[in-house]
C-alpha cells in the first residue's frame, strides 16, 4: 500500500484490500521514497488503517534504523498492535544505502556495510527487548535505552512477529533467530536471474537456520515483487510466478497496490482476480 494519499481516500484502499481477501496489507516506512511526495508516516497510517479494518493483518515493509531509534519505534508498534487488536506484523530491515531510501538523513558519518549490519543486529535486539518489556535498560555500541517502561506489553505475546528483510549471512542468522517471516526482493532484476538469486538466498537462509538451531520449516518466506515487474500482468501470469517460487520454498508473495499515473502495481481488475483465486 502506498502512503501517498490523504485520508479518508487512503482508507478506502485499505478497506478494499480487506474486502478482496488479502492476508496482510503492508506499507513502506520512509520519509520519502525515490523522490515521491507526499509520503505519510507508516505508523500513523497503520493506526488509521486499523480503525477502518477488522481482519486483515497490518505491517511495515520495512522499518529500519536509517531514521528510527528502537525506543520510539517500539512505542509506536505497541500502539498499533493495541489499536488493531493484535494484527501487527513488524517488518524490519537494515535499510537502504541511498539517500532516497533515507540513508544518512539524520546526518553524521556514512555507515559502512559492516557497521550497517552491526547496527541492525543491535537495533533488532533492543527492539525485541522493548516489545517484550516490562522495563528495559540497554547499553550497546550504537543504541541505548534507560529504564524504558513498556508494561503491560503488547496484545500479541510475547511481542508482534518480526518479518526480517535480509540477504547477507549476518542478517539471515538474525532472521533465523528472531524472525517469523523472512523477506527478499530477489534484487528486482531480470526474471531468470532473480529466480536464481532467490534460490541461492534460500539455501543461505537454511544454512543460517541450521547454525541457529532453527527448523527451517518454521520460518515463512516472502517475496516482495517489483511494482511494475513481470508476473503481475494477468492472474494466469501471477499463478505461474507463484508456482515457480513455491517450488523454491516461498510461502508468501507481496504485490503492490495500483498507483494511478505511475505504472506501479498491476491493474486493479487483475489484482482483484488474483486475490479471488488465491483466497478461494
From TrEMBL:
<dbReference type="InterPro" id="IPR050172">
    <property type="entry name" value="SsuD_RutA_monooxygenase"/>
</dbReference>
<dbReference type="InterPro" id="IPR036661">
    <property type="entry name" value="Luciferase-like_sf"/>
</dbReference>
<protein>
    <submittedName>
        <fullName>F420-dependent oxidoreductase</fullName>
    </submittedName>
</protein>
<keyword id="KW-0288">FMN</keyword>
<keyword id="KW-0560">Oxidoreductase</keyword>
<dbReference type="GO" id="GO:0046306">
    <property type="term" value="P:alkanesulfonate catabolic process"/>
</dbReference>
<dbReference type="InterPro" id="IPR011251">
    <property type="entry name" value="Luciferase-like_dom"/>
</dbReference>
<keyword id="KW-0285">Flavoprotein</keyword>
<dbReference type="Pfam" id="PF00296">
    <property type="entry name" value="Bac_luciferase"/>
</dbReference>
<dbReference type="GO" id="GO:0008726">
    <property type="term" value="F:alkanesulfonate monooxygenase activity"/>
</dbReference>
<keyword id="KW-0503">Monooxygenase</keyword>
<feature type="domain" description="Luciferase-like">
    <location>
        <begin position="6"/>
        <end position="224"/>
    </location>
</feature>
